[in-house]
## 1
Amino acid sequence: MSKQAFDAKIAALEALRATPDAAAAPLRKALADRNNYIVSKAAGLAGDLLLSGLIPDLLAAFDRALPDGPKSDPQCWAKNAVAKALKDLSHHAAEVYLKGLHHVQKEPVWGGSVDTAATLRGTCALALIDCQLDDLSMLTHLADALADPEKTVRVDAAVALSRAGIPEAAPLLRFKALSGDPEPEVIGQCLHSLLQMSPRDSVPFARRFLTHDHADDVRAEAASALAQSHDPAAVEALKKMWGALLSPELKQALLTFLAASPQREASEFLLGLGTKDAMEALKSSRYRDEFLSR
């Protein structure tokens, strides 16, 4: 396909936004295109325009893009867009998301290969929680994702576990946080997920990660998670942390987290500190107008 023909196809697809009632037929044709980028654009439009009648075509496009992925769907463009569109269209049959959740696609790069399916696995983990799966199956698949080689998938799995509405997800998140992760962001998301699920039980657990037993980046992730909590005990934990010996970087980060807290007490604490850095941080607080005038 020439560049001119390719650009014309993309332009024609974008033009369908102005005529959604007539978009189904051309999008159905585009979803069967051999070019994976055109399929991805068509899938995105199907989701944006809420054309649920195209779900069978989206499923067929996904299955075509799975075999020999580096050739049929380089960069997972089609599969990513289809999975997101199916989620947006409230498609709750688990089969397609389970395929995506366990799909690994190694593509050659200079000096080796890279897995380009991480975004797909994360999207499918988040979509799976709305499907009709028994709790044990759901937890089993998300536990696998929580141990995925790619950081983004592990983070999405921790988010999915908090949204799944399964109380038994909490021990999985606690175990992952305690066993550690090469990426502190994963531990931070586990703590944030636990605090969303059960604040009263999880504040004491998250508070453990504020101590000197942990590296500064892990302590920062724990502080960030606690700062987003609505539980008053979370702010008390951060106030006590402030009194400890902190590196300048961690101290500055803590000011930022306190300013972002939804609790007034956090801004009261910043005002009480009275330092230039605390006042600067207070400018980003939701209570800034009231507290800065004081």
Note: Residues 1-91 form one domain.
## 2
Amino acid sequence: MEPRRARGYGSIGSQFEKVSMVITDTHTHLYATEFAEYIDEVIERAKAAGVTRCFLPNVDLATADALVALAKRYPDMCFPMMGLHPCHVKENFEEELAALFAYFDRETFCAVGEIGIDLYWDKTTLDIQTKAFKRQVEFAIERKLPICIHSRESFDIIANILEDYKGKVGGVFHCFTGSLAQAERAIGFGFMLGIGGVLTFKNSGLDAVVKDIDLKHLLLETDSPYLAPMPHRGKRNESAYTALVAQKLADIKEMSLQELARITTENSIKLFGT
């Protein structure tokens, strides 16, 4: 990440500004401090690229107010979720979840997220991560909301947990990078797959997986400010770059960018109800 504006941002809008379409970024942390100084520019670049719908997953209690504030600032473009990210689950998670759940009585959210299990950074917290995940899944079921799942090095563990909730909850596996068998298992639970910048990485193998998956199961995302697609890999990501992921997926599916954007946006409306 760069503390100031990353190079190359000016080019994305000019590539797509003459194309009439709606691209949806189903996973972007636009409320993050990395964007605070430039949020209006970031929003305008997204619009110029055709990205006019952005879904905001929460991280923890410290980020909740900023997320809600940004969604209210751009109500026709930014749609909020609320949840506790697995990397931020601590021993007091029950207390933090109670505070986060209270937001649902004051505000409207399209999903419970970002939730899940992350075994990349810390395997020692698996027990409390699992408990927090299950509690949030059950809360989503109570509220009749979809969930947004973070599953880094934990897909099979999460899938085994979801067996107990099969048919009761749906949602999206955010930043899906798994195998075709894992994709089919997730789809079997009634979940969609969030496809982001990794699709553009050389030798990721994700292109071969998504080629065999019906587009009705796929969503576009960035995970901004992380995981920028090529040719911006290693720099700060932002929602405008969803257009680059969309173009890559359109190429793989051998279809027009406009049609790809239309179908994946319809998928997001079907899942999130907005």
Note: The first helix runs from residue 9 to 16.
## 3
Amino acid sequence: MTKFFFIAKDRAGIKITGVEEANSSEETAARLQARGLFVISINSESELAGPLLSRKKKYGHSKVSSGDLVNFCRQMATLLGSGVTILRSLDIISEQVQSRRLYKVAKEIKKAMEEGLSFHEALAKHPKVFSELWVNLVESGEASGSLPVVLDRLAKSLERGAEFKRKILTALFYPGILMVVGLGALLFLTIKIIPTFAEIFKGFNLTLPFITQVLMYISEAVRKYFIIAVVIIVISFVLLKKYIATEPGRRQYEKILFLLPVFGDFFRALIGERFSSEMSILIESGVPILYSLEIAEQSVGSLIVADYIRKMKDDVRQGKTLSQPLADCGFFEPMVVQMVSVGEEIGELSQMFKRINNFYQDSVETFLARFTALFEPIMLIFMGGIIGIMVLGMFLPIFQMSKIGGS
């Protein structure tokens, strides 16, 4: 008897995956059709693994990207949901990954499990690849016997997060390109064009207009001190980065970000989005609220908010509802607090956190849409004004020369 992995649909159009032991794919198809299922595909275990194991492994890159983790999680959920063992799933997936490091990690996870570790314990041995969120969700899935379901939820959460990041990067890409091109144009005019005009004006006995003199002084200073300025900027950036890497520096940095006019709300929404995303999937997967808060505290990405979550955890441990300390910290909007309160009352806290997550994602996307819509005309007006001043400063002496020549 051979194991055949199938994908089919029932009469309602719902996709069903599973595994059947039969003598042939035809026999498997007949069984499925007898159950009223529409067969989409049937593959034997050797057909799934054979082509992958027979070819020489090639890698697309070395590091483990968020896309690699999404694919890994999605494939694990599908294979386990189809009845494939974890060890066999790791074999199949490791031959498909594009990341050299993830390939090695998958092999090491399999080896650790063969030595007696559970899946979540094997994942925990690679904290730089699999976060606490991964480890605890897998542990919850193993304990409840619903690992495929938990991995499917995690895959969906990772996919939503990856799509959200892509939207942010896409929205910021055009303003970034516009700024780089604009600064490049200004540097070119300052370093190349203005000195050319300055050489021309030296041959004439002219009293240069004030604006022209200022531009020439700026041009000379930029050309003389450009390299020094670049070095100072790079050193300052490196030192600032090292300071931010320290706990006091990080806290000061976050305080400044959150207090920025206009952009402060944007950074708050980003943190709120991450917190609500993790809480929704943790609670939905059966992780206790205190443990969920502990995981969120470690992975929320903000020391200030981590302090708030630690206080929430202490208050919840003392018997308070989550909405009380959430309101006391003052970081989250009143609407968010009310939604959590309602979720606790009706026993749908995970669903409320999902709605909160959608709220924060919508807030970020709306901000970015408005920002990009306003940035282009503001940048164009600014660049146009600067370039206009430069052109005016260079052509005013020419107008003077034309008047002198005409008289």
Note: The first strand starts at residue 2 and ends at 9.
